[in-house]
């Protein structure tokens, strides 16, 4: 057996969880994945998952990935974990799960956000965390449990994000990292430490003892694989585990998008748009800890991007499924062809890409505008793609207006595989769209920090040089700019008009 070195990255997302083994050049050696076991809604606002069952499935995926790679587990020199930020997993004093985990799209705590706003607490919290608090974050969810389920709340002995729970199962160590917990608004962004005042404002001061040890850097080794975890997963006892980071920073690292002027756009379950600077950006979705001290990951986001496309193909995708079968063609390739067939200068349908919260308004929902009798299915497909690009533009324009330089956007997520979608993004954003060879950028980012922490790479620059391969950019067509600018103005005007309806719905939600 060759004496090669490998790294493992685990990316536990809202849609699925992936275990990927990489060589030191960033090539995928093997891959295994599992769905995320989203529970049927108990009631509106609940977005939950079975924590223990999902860990059991991930542990099997680790086994599967090692077997597929046909390597000795001793060759895996480090393991990194990333997952969706926000949401929450909580354990009792013995480390056992108390209730289903919450995804970041969980909005049961909207009433808690309303209470914070009514009592003047909301802005005080935002000032400490340097972001815009929403219902799917740990603080509001934990306060909801305090108000609505004291039987569970009073037993909480540990508060974690899902990636931290995976690390706990692997190492027996109760830890998190500064980026993920800071980005989930559980840290004072001025001191970069836990804050008694913040917990007091959330109304959960008694949970301070339940907070995990805070690793300062994603590359810090927080623990090593235990004998019990080795038996479950097939990993070698003693394999080092890095602290990791939230998935949105892991994707940035997995694309090597650290240059000034390069934005990262993640078109996945969430619509994530980010860059970095030495400044706190007022009213940003989040200004979370970055890779280096004194710098911030400046983020603008909403709760749905590629998930709009997933919804569309699942609910309204019967026609292309039948047609793709008849033509013996890829379903997604066929939709790409239909999107590309629509003349941009004759497009008239608009799509509001708000299938999930948080969104541009708490009552915002997805819809199509301007459908008529002669509207074709191809035009509907195109409207979805353009609508997703427009919501990214909405957020990227916010960051640009804060004088954060933009030269190119590095795009990842499922739709980034499509040249057609990349071209629409380039024309809408009016900058080159860059992509990388690796489709699993979150898992690669997690593996890279594990490689740095375990000494496989000297630093981020060394890792990027060896493991990141950037494809030829997709350049915009300058002649399309006036058309897309006009359509974006109309798209924006539609949602300005809908604001009054959404405000009315919010004002009358209890009737």
Account of the protein in words:
This protein has 511 residues and is α/β, with parallel strands linked by helices. Helices cover 40% and strands 18% of the residues. The chain contains 18 helices and 21 strands. It has helices at residues 51-69, 110-118, 121-129, 138-148, 150-153, 162-171, 178-183, 196-202, 227-233, 247-255, 306-316, 318-327, 331-340, 377-400, 419-429, 441-453, 460-467, 481-507; strands at residues 6-12, 16-23, 28-35, 48-49, 76-83, 89-91, 101-102, 158-160, 175-177, 213-215, 221-224, 240-242, 245-246, 262-267, 271-277, 286-289, 296-302, 350-352, 367-369, 408-412, 433-434. The strands form seven sheets. A six-stranded mixed beta sheet has the order 16-17-15-14-20-21, sandwiched between helices. The protein has a five-stranded mixed beta sheet with strand order 3-2-1-5-13, sandwiched between helices. A two-stranded antiparallel sheet has the order 4-7. Strand 1 (6-12) and strand 2 (16-23) form a beta hairpin. Helix 16 (441-453) packs across helix 17 (460-467). The longest helix has 27 residues, at 481-507.
């Amino acid at each position: 057996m060759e004496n090669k070195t490998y790294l493992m990255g685990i990316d536990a997302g809202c849609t699925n969880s992936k275990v990927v083994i990489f060589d030191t050049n960033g090539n995928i050696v093997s891959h295994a994945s599992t769905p995320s076991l989203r529970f049927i809604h108990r009631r509106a606002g609940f977005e939950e998952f079975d924590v223990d069952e999902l860990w059991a499935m991930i542990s099997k995926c680790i086994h599967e990935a090692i077997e597929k790679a046909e390597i000795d587990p001793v060759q895996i020199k480090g393991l990194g974990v990333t997952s969706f930020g926000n949401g929450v997993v909580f354990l009792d004093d013995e480390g056992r799960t108390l209730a289903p985990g919450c995804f970041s799209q969980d909005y049961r705590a909207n009433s808690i956000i309303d209470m914070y706003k009514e009592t003047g607490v909301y802005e005080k919290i935002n000032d400490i965390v340097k972001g815009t608090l929403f219902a799917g974050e740990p603080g509001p969810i934990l306060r909801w449990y305090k108000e609505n389920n004291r039987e569970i709340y009073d037993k909480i002995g540990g508060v974690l994000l899902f990636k931290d729970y995976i690390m706990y199962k692997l190492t027996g160590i109760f830890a998190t990292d500064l980026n993920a917990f800071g980005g989930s608004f559980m840290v004072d962004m001025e001191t970069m430490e836990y804050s008694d005042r913040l917990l007091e404002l959330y109304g959960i001061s008694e949970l301070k003892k339940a907070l995990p040890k805070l690793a300062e850097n994603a590359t810090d080794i927080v623990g090593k694989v235990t004998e019990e975890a080795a038996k479950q997963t097939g990993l070698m006892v003693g394999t080092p585990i890095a602290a990791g980071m939230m998935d949105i920073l892991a994707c940035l690292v997995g694309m090597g998008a650290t240059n000034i002027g390069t934005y990262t756009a993640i078109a996945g379950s969430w619509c994530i748009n980010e860059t970095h600077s030495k400044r706190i950006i007022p009213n940003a979705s989040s200004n979370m800890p970055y890779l280096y001290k004194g710098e911030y990951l400046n983020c603008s986001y909403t709760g749905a991007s590629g998930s709009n496309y997933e919804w569309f193909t699942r609910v309204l995708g019967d026609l292309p499924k039948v047609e793709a079968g008849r033509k013996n063609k890829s379903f997604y390739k066929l939709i790409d062809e239909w999107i590309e067939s629509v003349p941009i200068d004759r497009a008239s349908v608009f799509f509001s890409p708000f299938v999930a919260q948080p969104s541009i308004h708490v009552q915002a929902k997805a819809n199509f505008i301007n459908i008529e009798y002669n509207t074709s299915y191809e035009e509907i497909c195109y409207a979805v793609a353009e609508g997703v690009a427009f919501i990214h533009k909405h957020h990227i324009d916010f960051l640009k207006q804060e004088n954060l330089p933009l030269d190119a956007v590095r795009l990842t997520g499922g739709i980034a595989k499509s040249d057609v979608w990349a071209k629409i993004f380039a024309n809408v954003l009016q900058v080159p769209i860059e992509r990388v060879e690796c489709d699993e950028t979150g898992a690669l980012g997690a593996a890279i920090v594990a490689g740095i922490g375990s000494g496989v790479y000297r630093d981020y620059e060394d890792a990027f040089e060896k493991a990141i391969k950037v494809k030829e950019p997709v350049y915009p067509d300058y002649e399309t700019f006036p058309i897309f600018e006009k359509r974006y103005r109309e798209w924006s005007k539609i949602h300005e008009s809908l604001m009054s309806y959404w405000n009315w719905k919010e004002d009358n939600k209890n009737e």
